[in-house]
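User: Show me a protein chain along with its predicted structure.
Assistant: Here is one chain, sequence first, then structure tokens.
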Amino acid sequence: MSIKDIFLAAFGRFAAGDVEVLREVIREDFVNHDPDSPRERDAWIEYVANGPIATSTLDLKRVIADDEFVVAHYALVPPEGGFGEAVADIWRFDGELIVEHWAVAQPATAPGQV
């Protein structure tokens, strides 16, 4: 199974409300490089599980992958609606597990435009 396939399966489960999938696909020594959220695995998973992303609608627009990295571009729309955010995440895999993460986000300027 390719890392793109692994990512897509995990993203689908997460988007459907299965936050525990993160514990299955993120390695223990994971490092998050987003300065606005925790760096270490368990703290980051808790942050995500208890934050707005866990209850938002995630509309995956595109995925780009090579042998080590997956880049995901998606719309994140909070439960209360609105335009939400355009998000790009970069995930580095080692084998079949995620070991690093980077993120950029900006407010969306119109519904569905990411």
